[in-house]
Write the structure tokens for this entry.
Amino acid sequence: MANIFIKRIYEPYDELDGCRILVDRLWPRGISKDAARLSYWFKEVAPSNELRKSFCHVPELFEEFRTNYLEELRTDDEKRGLVRQILDLAEKERVTLLYGAKEPIYNHAQVLMEELRGQIVETNE
């Protein structure tokens, strides 16, 4: 898992970021496409609109959000395919998952990273 990192898109670009993947459904405010320097925008791996709106970045709702988002990541074919694509990219190069939320702990990128870690553990068993 040493090859996948999480970073807020508002942090400065660093060439050490490697493959930069935006994992938000919505484009982050105030960021130009040039400044983002993205390799990919995997908006479909983000939580569904319904789930995103129900969470609304309220920390007290995070555990329920986490459970529901993990369920989406595991049952939605498109999301599963993108998770696999991230893992495949990480086998070849450093990958940085980018998100726009202000909260560094209670956000969907952390849940996505949890799922990626779980996939790696399953693969290595």
